[in-house]
């Protein structure tokens, strides 16, 4: 998959038009690369791009259904007229584009608006989880919030809309519909979303769907864990910007609220908690994305009639939020069983990780950290099964296969696996592999 990226913050100026009126002039500098930024998009035919603008801040994450019970996106974003349509061609490295925002006559009038840059051909855009089932390569759009009164943004947004087949998509108003995370501007691979995290988020959203899974690859054992209705404690290691951990929380919250609407919850949902961990340099972005998740999901949609507060039951449904937290975890400490207070606070049922196997030098520390987490649970209570491990990876090098030998030597075995095809525009198709590992309490050294 390829990603539209901003190489620098948008440049916003007030420009005098021929009618002697001020309009907002915006300049963007873009590139389109793979998740690692190691190659540029090289399409067989030119890729036209479009820019959209929303006058509303994306602080609420709720379905808007029109009179035909279909998602109503027309009020969210509208197309920006361009003097010349941005076009990415084979051999491109950087694309500069500029345009006017005719609806605004001053920079102050922008308030908090959001720009979106995406392929003009909707079928080439990875806006939603169902898009990942396409048999052709995709490009992920980018969003950036314009805040004229604040310092220039150094982050952009990735937004992946949950789209499930059947009636689940059209059940009314209290379910979150997307996961949204910040990533840093520029070409650096650090603190960006990567392919396996995006695809695994789509897979877990499919597993948590009340409707059928459709054609999305799935892990039956993992689906049982997520939909059993039991209490669930999940820790993610190497979380990066947090798209998988926050995506899982959003998918589970969506399922809970759908159950509430259908009358499926009789005694309230079982407790669920998610802890994301990574190196200290990932902390700021991960914590910011947790705060964004909280803002988007802690309150329900506005009531349909002004002054209507809703019932106490409505407010209780809206107030429930699956907690997501963060703590630093260096695998060099983890392999020695040295964990922070949040990691040590509870027995974990599931350990998740995605896009963590590319650095083969760190594989021994990774496997030993997973094993130490397992032992920390089974040692504390012989009656408690150790956590399962959910691993999502995009194979990049033959050397990464060393992970499986290390896992086997440490007593881990694969209990479930799935493969998600990942077509690449202008290149060879790739795959995302997902594995569920288990380990008996008495195995290993």
TrEMBL record:
Signal peptide residue numbers: none
InterPro entries linked: Methyltransf_16 (IPR019410), SAM-dependent_MTases_sf (IPR029063)
Highest taxon in the source lineage: Eukaryota
Coiled-coil intervals: none
Matching Pfam families: Methyltransf_16
Region Disordered: start-end pairs: 293-314
Protein name: S-adenosyl-L-methionine-dependent methyltransferase
Source organism (scientific name): Pyricularia grisea
């Amino acid at each position: 998959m390829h990603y539209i990226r901003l190489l620098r913050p948008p440049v916003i100026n007030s420009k005098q038009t021929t009618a002697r009126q001020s309009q907002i002039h915006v300049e963007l500098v873009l590139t389109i690369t793979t998740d690692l930024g190691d190659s540029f998009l090289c399409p067989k035919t030119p890729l036209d791009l479009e820019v959209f603008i929303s006058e509303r801040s994306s602080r609420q994450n709720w379905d808007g259904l029109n009179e035909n019970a279909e998602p109503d996106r027309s009020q969210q974003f509208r197309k920006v007229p361009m003097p010349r349509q941005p076009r990415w061609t084979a051999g491109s490295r950087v694309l500069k584009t500029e345009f006017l925002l005719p609806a605004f006559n001053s920079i102050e009038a922008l308030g908090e608006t959001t720009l979106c840059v995406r392929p003009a051909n909707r079928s080439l855009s990875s806006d939603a989880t169902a898009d990942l089932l396409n048999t052709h390569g995709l490009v992920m759009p980018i969003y950036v919030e314009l805040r004229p009164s604040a310092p220039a943004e150094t982050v952009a947004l990735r937004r992946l809309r949950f789209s499930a087949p059947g009636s689940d998509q059209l059940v009314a108003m209290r379910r979150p519909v997307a996961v949204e995370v910040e990533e840093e501007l520029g070409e650096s691979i650090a603190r960006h979303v990567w392919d396996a995290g995006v695809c695994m988020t789509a897979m877990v959203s499919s597993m948590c769907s009340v409707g059928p899974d459709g054609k999305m690859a799935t892990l039956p054992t993992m689906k049982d864990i997520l939909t059993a209705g039991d209490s669930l404690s999940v820790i993610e290691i190497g979380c990066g910007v947090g798209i998988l951990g926050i995506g899982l929380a959003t998918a589970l919250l969506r399922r809970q609220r759908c159950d509430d609407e259908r009358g499926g919850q009789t005694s309230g949902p079982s407790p669920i908690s998610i802890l994301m961990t990574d190196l200290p340099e990932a902390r700021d972005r991960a914590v910011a994305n947790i705060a964004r998740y909280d803002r988007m999901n802690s309150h329900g949609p506005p009531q349909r009639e002004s002054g209507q507060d809703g019932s106490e039951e409505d407010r209780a449904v809206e107030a429930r939020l699956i907690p997501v937290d963060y703590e630093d975890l260096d695998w060099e400490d983890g392999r020695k069983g040295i964990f922070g207070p949040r990691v040590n606070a509870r027995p974990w049922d599931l350990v998740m990780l995605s896009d963590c196997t590319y650095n083969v030098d760190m594989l021994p520390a990774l496997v030993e950290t997973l094993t130490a987490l397992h032992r920390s649970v089974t040692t504390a209570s012989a009656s408690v099964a150790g956590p399962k491990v959910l691993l999502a990876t995009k194979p990049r090098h033959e050397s990464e296969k060393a992970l499986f030998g290390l896992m086997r030597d440490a007593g881990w075995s694969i209990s479930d696996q799935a493969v998600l095809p990942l077509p690449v525009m202008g290149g060879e198709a790739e795959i995302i592999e997902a594995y569920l590992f288990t380990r008996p309490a008495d195995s290993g050294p």
